[in-house]
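Attaching the record inline, Q. Sequence:
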Amino acid sequence: MALFSNTTEEKTTKEKAVATEKKVASGKESVLATRVLARPRITEKAYSLNAFRQYVFVVTKEATKKSVKRAIEEAYGVHVEKVRMICLPEETRVFGKTMGKRSAIKKAIVTLQEGESLELFKGGM
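Structure, as predicted:
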């Protein structure tokens, strides 16, 4: 029985090593990044800010500048120079005969250090 137990232990350690390599390589696997960053905001204005090393993300309502900075650095492996936060209020909209509301969002404009960029935004519009 000792032969079988040793091989299963070796397999589990190899599986753990492969799983950690996948987490590091894939980028956005940190707990902080998934808790703070909702998604990148890709609009014409946000895309035009890329020329100034600025990237726009939609973040959760509880996010702070420090948590956004740490999340971006962990998720994408870049150095953040500055973070600006903007809260957009909810809007009342007319949908046919009924009134509705567009939910409020919080977005972060992240400025990276000189010479760094995010591959996520290189595709273009």
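The beta strands are 37-40, 54-59, 80-88, 91-95, 98-102, 105-112. Residues 44 and 75 are 24 Å apart (CA to CA).

More tomorrow.
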